[in-house]
Design a protein that fits this description.
Radius of gyration of chain B: 24 Å
Shape of chain A: elongated
Largest sheet of chain A: 2 strands, antiparallel
Strand order of the largest sheet of chain B: 2-3-4-1-11-10-12
Shape of chain B: globular
Oligomer: heterodimer
Number of helices of chain B: 18
Helix content of chain A: 10-25%
């Protein structure tokens, strides 16, 4: 169900970000619009099941789809 | 941040006056959520009027609302632009020649629910204020399908027809009695970057998080940290101890069960290491979901979007209020900081078939779950859904929630980190190790997990609730969102499973929470 892919852009400017943070990196950031899979399956796994937050009550059930 | 009810009469008259707790114009009102961490201002240039609500930064003056301030058009425009570009949470309500528009910021800490009917525009951060519009016989199939199939998505739709969630950066325009909601352009995110040789990642991570913790106007003695014992809240706690040393209350929900010894032990290590002078604990087992005496069992206003652990959270909130706490820091957003991109994930799941108990109305639209959802957000969608789940309860009790791990600058920094730093929360763990915390904290053999106590709650409380609902009448069954016979079988199966292995079908909790939420929050 989650199918669309990255819409990648060119390297953008750093903007007003704090330069100190950037000093630990060796290249410039590449800005992208994230895919649906990245947005809703952020820890990997089944893209069609809500992953919720680990620690939320339904995130680690071994038997949730017993039927 | 706002609750409002606007009519054409009141808006056209534009005779706004401050009553001491809200602005009124004839039969219309706008009521700000009063809190020391927020500022509210009504400004007007004579032609347009705006309510500007925002979180206060440390040096901002007190934000008590008062009578409308009249100002020249250029100053009005400046005030509007300043709030629209505010880096913390904000809401703008603008009344001008176009009509009325409501605008949300990037944080959407407590999203406004908004609806228009019969010449009235109504909105509130508390869905329970809109009871006359939340009707259980007018539900949105697509949103019901999202909740029942666990494909939770972030968007304008709620389960109630005509009642919308004002998502981050969205605008709602009420014009000629018509309400239109518009999404913003998708937010850009970034790919991982290469590190320079010798880069001090942990120092940079600590600095960015310390900055995120210190962005708001707070009185440290009135702040608490919800300390779960996990990596997320522990890192927030570490930064809080740097920025506001020796001030905060540490508050913990104790999971009990097989974590009865190790969980309080782990939290005690952190409380000691970070020198929190006060701590509070509430055993979850004493306040199980759907348990007797709890907010659900007592018929309290718990919506389908409220925190699953609302009973235990209510007990904790009561204790925090008694301590004078007004700001609650938490670890929301921490999991998402460690997220892997699609190209970094080594396993991809496949969709499972829908359970038998899913009813025909859900089956008919289950493939539409991605339609109408918000474009990519600045703060992760899962975090924003967490806000919608957790925060209304805190606001109802006078606590403003702060989630430093959802800070956009921190999100971007973590996106830049190469995968090994993000995976398994490595950067979180190594930072705590660098601060001298033991392996019990930074790399526990058994992570705390609420599954055991949730299973117990389902066995003791949720199954009896569902059985009773199936007997006396169920919104979900009567509306064909679930198949009652198949649900009864699933319950039987779950009870057998419990007797055999002390495991539980946790989908039953979702069904019960939705059923109860519809009963409790629908007009």
């Amino acid at each position: 169900m989650l199918t669309n892919s990255y819409a990648e852009t060119d390297v953008d400017l750093i903007g007003e970000q704090v330069s100190e943070i950037h000093e630990i990196f060796a290249d410039l950031p590449v800005f992208v619009v994230p895919s649906l899979r990245d947005r809703y399956s952020f820890l990997g796994g089944d893209p069609d099941i809500d992953q919720e937050r680990p620690g939320a009550p339904l995130s680690e059930s071994a038997v949730e789809r017993e039927e | 941040m706002l609750t409002f009810r606007l009519t054409e009469t009141g808006v056209t008259a534009a005779q706004w006056r401050w009553t001491g707790h809200r602005w009124e114009s004839q039969d219309s009102y706008i009521e700000p959520y009063r809190h020391p961490s927020l500022s509210h201002d009504m400004v007007t240039d004579g032609a347009s009027t705006a309510v500007l609500s925002r979180e206060r930064r440390p040096d901002d003056p007190s934000g008590d609302p008062g009578p409308p301030r009249v100002m020249p058009a250029i100053a009005f425009r400046h005030a509007l632009d300043e709030t629209r570009s505010w880096s913390l949470d904000r809401t703008v309500l603008l009344i001008d020649s176009r009509g009325v528009s409501a605008e949300a910021g990037t944080w959407a800490v407590a999203p406004v629910f908004i609806t228009a009917r019969e010449g009235t525009l109504s909105g509130s951060w508390d869905i329970n204020e809109l009871r006359e519009y939340t009707q259980a016989d007018r539900l949105v199939d697509r949103e019901m399908a999202r909740l029942l199939t666990w494909r939770h998505r972030y968007g304008h739709e709620t389960v109630w027809e005509g009642v919308h969630r004002l998502t981050e950066r969205s605008t709602a325009l009420w014009q000629d009695r018509q309400l239109t909601l518009n999404y913003p352009a998708p937010a850009y995110h970034t790919h991982p970057r290469r590190l320079r040789p010798g880069a001090n990642v942990l120092e940079a991570f600590g600095k960015v998080l310390d900055s995120a913790v210190a962005r708001r106007a707070v009185v440290p003695e009135n702040c608490a940290i919800e300390l779960s014992g996990g990596m997320d809240s522990s890192n927030v706690a570490a930064s809080l101890s740097h920025v506001y040393p020796g001030k905060l209350v540490a508050a913990t929900l104790l999971l009990g069960g097989r974590f009865e010894i190790i969980h309080p032990h782990r939290c005690a290590i952190m409380i000691d290491a970070f020198s929190f002078p006060h701590s509070l604990t509430v055993p979850v087992a004493d306040h199980l979901p759907f348990g007797p005496g709890g907010v659900r069992a007592e018929g309290g206003p718990v919506s389908p979007y409220d925190d699953p652990w609302i009973e235990a959270k209510a007990a904790l909130t009561t204790d925090l209020k008694a301590r004078g706490v007004t700001v609650s820091f938490g670890g929301n957003g921490g999991d998402e900081l460690g997220s892997l991109r699609e190209f970094e994930q080594t396993t991809h799941g496949t969709a499972s078939p829908l359970p038998q108990w899913i009813g025909p109305r859900v089956r008919a639209v289950a493939h539409e779950c991605e339609e109408g959802i918000a474009p990519a957000t600045v703060v992760h969608e899962a975090t924003l859904r967490g806000f919608a789940s957790r925060n209304a309860h805190l606001l109802r009790n006078g606590l403003w929630p702060v989630s430093p791990l959802a800070d956009p600058e921190l999100i971007q920094f973590c996106e830049w980190l190469p995968r090994p730093w993000r995976e398994h929360k490595t950067v979180h763990r190594l930072r705590l190790a660098g601060l001298g915390l033991s392996l019990d904290v930074v790399s526990p053999l058994n992570n705390e997990n609420p599954a055991e106590v949730l299973d117990l709650a389902i066995h003791k409380n949720v199954i009896p609730y569902l059985k009773e609902r199936l007997r006396i009448g169920s919104i979900l069954a009567d509306s064909r969102y679930i198949a009652p016979d198949a649900l009864a079988k699933a319950i039987d199966h779950a009870e057998t499973l419990w007797l055999r292995s002390r495991q539980m079908n946790r989908a039953l909790f979702k069904i019960a929470a939705l059923e109860h939420g519809l009963h409790a929050s629908s007009g």
